[in-house]
Amino acid sequence: MTDAATLEIRGLTASVEGKDILKGIDLTVTQGETHALMGPNGSGKSTLANVIMGRPGYTVTGGQVLFKGEDITVLTPDERARRGLFLAMQYPVEVPGVSVVNFLRTAYKSVKGDEIGALAFRKHMKEKMVTLGVEDAMVNRYLNQGFSGGEKKRNEILQLAVLEPEIAILDETDSGLDIDSLKQVATGIAQLVGPNLGVLLVTHYQRILNYITPDHVHVMMQGRIVMSGGKELAHELEQKGYEEIRRELGIEETVGAST
User: Angle 173-179-182 (CA atoms, 0-180°, nearest 5)?
Assistant: First the structure.
């Protein structure tokens, strides 16, 4: 597509509580593409997602994170969101007393800068709910309070649909989901994928890729991207396992996990 938004990560290094986690990440995600970032637990995948969105406590020690040509490492998380980035968190938090619909409207106004009326927003939200098969009862509940794991993740995908970012980072959206919930969430993501949305899908397992076909697959180990390829790479990982890939690449096992 013309003038597609691009997220470009160049030589990125980062630490958490003084511990080096990311050790030189190079990755480019363009609007309209779907990238799967896979790797064993402790490889640094979630750290990368949090660094991209500027979560406090994650310190960039080198390199750049560019979005649409702008180095965003100096921007706050809300400024990055207004630029067109979105992060679906691995562990969505509960917000008692704030309904989903009020949260979404506030987030929409903050990200878009629009003073959208209640009726206009309801229409916009309802269109997304119909697309994703979300019922009215969910948006009238307090944000994530009493939600099952699947409901929390479906709510994250509804946020993604409503806010319409250009690039979305989905951090282990399949984590903790049973088979039915995984299918619902993954199908929702697949419905949103298209020319206007670039996706960096962070996952430990291949199973979510049964519903979402990635254009590119990257393997992360010990804070580095060690392999990249097409969708067939995910199936190779499923067959061989990460330990076999690690041995083939001659990567020594380290003691202690990364975040």
Answer: 25
